[in-house]
Amino acid sequence: MAAILNNKEKEYLFGKIRDVYDFPKPGIIFKDITTLLNDKDAFNFLINHLVQRYETFDFEFITGIESRGFIFGAALAAKLNRAFVPIRKPKKLPYTTISEKYSLEYGIDEIEMHIDAFSTAKQNPPKVLLVDDLIATGGTATAAVRLLRKIDVECIEACFLINLKSLKGDLEIAKTTPVYSVLEVF
Ligand code: AMP
């Protein structure tokens, strides 16, 4: 069975994440993971847990969502000897891109990926693990899965450090993709 943490381990990691009130705007409790990264034992513990969970899964690539998904995704990719693909905000990637739009509370946002990001894949279709630090409404991660689908890439699981359960984003993405959250906030 795929590895999950016990309650004591979850409490340990929770204790390393800082709540910042009213950032970036009033009413939002921002989950600041820099305090976890700043603690080498906690960061190492988290990455080792993800290594344990994913070392037996069948996939060639990890895709991380800008920007905190890069930190966890790239660290995990290096440890698991998988390739890493960044999914970025518009106009950041230098080569030809494909993009996907998604709705925000007010307005729309967009994510992009290089068109040839999976050209080294040996599997057909290429299989990827999607990583981000947090799932809130699920808009970003669901758009990332759609973006991957556009070029026939299969997302084998979407992995988050934190899941803000009350926003039900996990239910949205779970319609198409297995979801794993290390920690859940109710
Ligand atoms: P969503 O598309 O609503 O699921 O939002 C997810 C993205 O927004 C992730 O990339 C998170 O890093 C960021 N995010 C949303 N809410 C928070 C929060 N309360 N604390 C930290 N990051 C957040």
CATH 2nd-level architecture of the domain at 57-185: 3-Layer(aba) Sandwich
Uncertain stretches of 5 or more adjacent residues? none
* Alpha-carbon Rg, integer: 16 Å
Q: Which series of helices and strands comes N to C?
A: HEEHHEHEEEEHEHE
Mean pLDDT: 97
Tertiary shape: globular
- Here the CATH topology of the domain at 57-185 equals Rossmann fold
What ligands does this structure carry? adenosine monophosphate
- Our count of helices gives 6
CATH domain class name of the domain at 57-185: Alpha Beta
How would a textbook summarize the main sheet? 5 strands, parallel
Report on this structure.
With 186 residues, the protein is α/β, with parallel strands linked by helices. It has a domain at 57-185: Rossmann fold, CATH 3.40.50.2020. It is built from 6 helices and 9 strands. The strands form 3 sheets. A 5-stranded parallel β-sheet has the order 4-3-7-8-9, sandwiched between helices. Helix 3 (40-54) crosses helix 4 (68-80). The longest helix has 15 residues, at 40-54. The radius of gyration is 16 Å and the shape is globular. The model has no long low-confidence stretch (mean pLDDT 97). The chain binds adenosine monophosphate (AMP). Adenosine monophosphate (AMP) is lined by residues 28-31, 65, 68, 132-141, 169. The site of adenosine monophosphate has 17 residues, from strand 2, strand 7 and helix 5.
